[in-house]
Design brief:
about 120 residues
């Protein structure tokens, strides 16, 4: 399974990358929304982890763009934890929304659950 992390906090992105690689995932990290949108367009990822507040292009805009051509699972991981932000994430097509600070164990559990549910859905088609 291949995961793309789009997160402008390089230290955090690299930490999540290392954690997920330890669970056997192939992971790439990019550090701004525009690059994230470009990478996502390649269509090679099984899951995206997407921040909201980023340079060049915010995460909501990236998500809206991605949803024009893909239903890849997207987990929003962001400091924007207000109810209105979370609802906006789901409205734009997020599959999961986690506010920072977060539990690494919960993040891994949600990543694995999203990937599992998507495999089940794809297998039933």
């Amino acid at each position: 399974m291949k995961i793309l992390i789009v997160e402008d906090e390089k230290l955090l992105a690299d930490s999540i990358k290392t954690m997920l690689e330890g669970r056997g995932f192939q992971v790439e990290a990019v550090y701004d929304g525009e690059t994230g949108a470009d990478y996502a367009e390649l269509g090679i990822y099984d899951l995206l982890i997407l921040d909201v507040m980023m340079p060049k292009m915010d995460g909501f805009s990236v998500l809206k763009e991605i949803r024009q051509y893909s239903q890849v699972p997207v987990l929003m991981l962001t400091a924007k934890g207000e109810e209105s932000d979370e609802l906006a994430g789901f409205r734009y097509g997020a599959d999961e929304y986690i506010s920072k600070p977060f539990s690494p164990k919960v993040l891994i559990a949600r990543v694995e659950a999203l990937l599992k549910s998507c495999r089940v859905l794809n297998d039933s088609r």
